[in-house]
Amino acid sequence: MRTSYLLLFTLCLVLCDMASGDTFLTSLGRRSDHYNCVKGGGQCLYSPCPIYTRVQGTCYGGKAKCCK
């Protein structure tokens, strides 16, 4: 009985993680756009990029800009 509860709990955790989408794919080895931006020396901004920087990509699923 205990084992079945543990399996059900694990299944619920996996399905909840899959529902968010991004975290499930990230856990499989695909990095989020925010991670790639920051690792490349950029910063994610919802506002326009500051002077002397330019847009290099997107962050947060295309909702923000990656400025370098």
UniProtKB/TrEMBL annotation:
Q: Which residues form the Beta-defensin-like domain?
A: 33-68
Q: Which GO terms describe its cellular component?
A: extracellular space
> Per its UniProt entry, which superkingdom is the organism in?
Eukaryota
The GO annotation for biological process reads: defense response to Gram-negative bacterium; defense response to Gram-positive bacterium; innate immune response in mucosa
Question: What single Pfam family name could you report for this chain, choosing any that match?
Answer: Defensin_beta
Q: Which UniProt keywords apply?
A: Antibiotic, Antimicrobial, Defensin, Disulfide bond, Secreted, Signal
**Localization of this protein:** Secreted
Main localization is secreted
- Where would one find the signal peptide in this protein? 1-21
Gene Ontology MF terms in the entry: CCR6 chemokine receptor binding
Q: InterPro entries in the record, alphabetically?
A: Defensin_beta-like
**What's this protein's family per the entry?**
Belongs to the beta-defensin family.
Q: How does it assemble?
A: Monomer. Homodimer.
* Primary role: Has bactericidal activity. May act as a ligand for C-C chemokine receptor CCR6. Positively regulates the sperm motility and bactericidal activity in a CCR6-dependent manner. Binds to CCR6 and triggers Ca2+ mobilization in the sperm which is important for its motility.
In Swiss-Prot or TrEMBL terms, this protein is called: Beta-defensin 1
Give the organism the record lists: Sapajus apella
What gene is it encoded by?
Answer: DEFB1
